[in-house]
């Protein structure tokens, strides 16, 4: 029987299409694109190393994409030049709030072993969650143990102790109190952590919301955000930043916090710590990990003191999240791998695990997890909770520098 060419050609085309579709579908199921947004170079390198070596996607391939941390992520995703990620790592805050509304979801059972304070920070959608809490950072204060012994003090547990210790080492240490004030994220994190510790969580919420509102109003009007006026208003009596600013001004009035710190980078802090030229360092767990062993060896870590009881605290402990944008089986495999690899993740990054019974990297990571678990759901850094661009962060940080030292 003679078969018509008119039938053969369409049939061949259909067969070819079916083959191409199958290959494409297989490729999508066996390749994952992992994005990193506004993470440190060290954090990205550690996460890449773990996922590459352990190959959580099994037979699949993982592509890594470092997204531009200086611009809002939701706008980047709409650009053709940026490949869409199947899962994105970022810290909680303003960007997470926006992205979680359009993310895929993961079974809430993934949170079963996570500490209650951290799991409470993840909004549930029925029995699903929009993100996995992988690790936590923590705003901390490092105390020079060598200088502490010389003063005769046995411990530093509250703000009065911090003031007394700093005064006692004033002649011996070039910077009785220091922090990397040249870094925008550091100074914004400090402002937020002080607000929570001294004014309370509710005042921190108002502080962050008013900063967001001011930026929104400026964008609508097409004008520039007047950060000097905004922070002047927020630090007026009765406002969220009034008491934190009074504490800063008290430190400067007693000359235990000098405006020379405005030029200090983290590398300078490392040098000062090694040379025993600073007594108290405001930093974070993630920044602590970037300091040399010679620097941190003679320092111990405490959390930001407060008159509020533990149940009313909400430490500034940014949560490193993994947000899925695909329900593909390989994405779920990766999610499970991340939760099963908490000990390795903590060891490689130096951050605190979110699961209760996992052994942390060391005492610092263990302390951070314990402090966060013993308080309310942790807060993000003010740098992430109220800002979505590096330019806005820089302008706000500049205004805080002037406010702190009345420049």
Could you characterize what this model shows?
With 407 residues, the protein is of the alpha/beta class. The protein has 19 helices and twelve strands. It has helices at 5-30, 41-54, 73-77, 94-99, 116-119, 145-151, 159-168, 184-199, 201-221, 227-234, 242-253, 266-274, 285-288, 293-296, 329-340, 342-349, 363-373, 382-385, 390-405, and strands at residues 31-37, 61-67, 87-91, 106-107, 128-129, 132-136, 139-144, 175-178, 278-284, 299-302, 319-324, 352-353. A six-stranded mixed sheet has the order 2-1-3-11-6-12. Strand 1 (31-37), helix 2 and strand 2 (61-67) form a beta-alpha-beta unit. Helix 8 (184-199) packs across helix 9 and helix 10 crosses helix 19 (390-405). The protein starts with a helix and ends with a helix.
Outline the fold blueprint.
Elements: H1 5-30, E1 31-37, H2 41-54, E2 61-67, H3 73-77, E3 87-91, H4 94-99, E4 106-107, H5 116-119, E5 128-129, E6 132-136, E7 139-144, H6 145-151, H7 159-168, E8 175-178, H8 184-199, H9 201-221, H10 227-234, H11 242-253, H12 266-274, E9 278-284, H13 285-288, H14 293-296, E10 299-302, E11 319-324, H15 329-340, H16 342-349, E12 352-353, H17 363-373, H18 382-385, H19 390-405
Helix pairs in contact: 2-16, 8-9, 8-19, 10-19
């Amino acid at each position: 029987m003679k078969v018509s060419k008119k039938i053969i050609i369409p049939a061949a085309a259909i067969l070819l299409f079916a083959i191409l579709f199958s290959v494409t579908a297989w490729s999508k199921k066996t390749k994952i694109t992992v994005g990193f947004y506004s993470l440190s170079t060290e954090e990205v390198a550690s996460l890449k190393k773990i996922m590459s070596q352990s190959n959580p996607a099994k037979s699949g391939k993982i592509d890594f994409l470092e997204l531009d941390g200086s611009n809002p992520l939701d706008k980047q995703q709409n650009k053709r030049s940026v490949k869409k990620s199947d899962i994105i790592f970022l810290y909680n805050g303003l960007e997470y709030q926006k992205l979680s509304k359009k993310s895929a979801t993961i079974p809430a059972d993934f949170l079963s072993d996570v500490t209650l304070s951290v799991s409470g920070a993840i909004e549930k959608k029925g029995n699903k969650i929009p993100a996995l809490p992988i690790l936590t950072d923590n705003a901390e204060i490092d105390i020079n143990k060598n200088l502490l012994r010389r003063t005769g003090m046995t411990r530093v547990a509250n703000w009065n102790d911090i003031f007394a210790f700093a005064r006692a080492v004033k002649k011996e240490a070039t910077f009785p109190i220091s922090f990397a004030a040249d870094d925008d994220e550091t100074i914004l994190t400090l402002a937020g952590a002080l607000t929570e510790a001294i004014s309370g969580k509710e005042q921190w919420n108002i502080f962050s919301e008013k900063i967001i509102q001011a930026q929104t109003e400026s964008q609508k009007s097409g004008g520039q955000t007047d950060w000097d006026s905004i922070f002047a208003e927020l630090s007026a009596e009765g406002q969220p930043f009034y008491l934190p600013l009074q504490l800063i001004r008290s430190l400067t009035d007693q000359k235990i916090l000098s405006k020379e710190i405005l030029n200090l980078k983290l590398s300078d802090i490392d040098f000062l710590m090694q040379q025993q030229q600073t007594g108290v360092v405001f930093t974070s767990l993630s920044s602590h990990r970037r300091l040399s062993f010679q620097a941190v060896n003679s320092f111990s870590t405490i959390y930001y003191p407060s008159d509020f009881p533990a149940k009313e605290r909400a430490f500034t402990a940014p949560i490193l999240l993994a947000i899925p944008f695909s329900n593909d089986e390989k994405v779920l495999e990766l999610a499970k791998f991340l939760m099963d690899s908490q000990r390795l993740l903590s060891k490689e990054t130096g951050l605190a695990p979110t699961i209760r019974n996992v052994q942390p990297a060391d005492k610092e990571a263990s302390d951070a997890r314990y402090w966060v678990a013993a308080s309310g759901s942790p807060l993000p850094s003010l740098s992430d909770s109220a800002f979505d661009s590096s330019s806005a962060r820089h302008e706000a940080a500049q205004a805080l520098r002037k406010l702190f030292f009345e420049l």
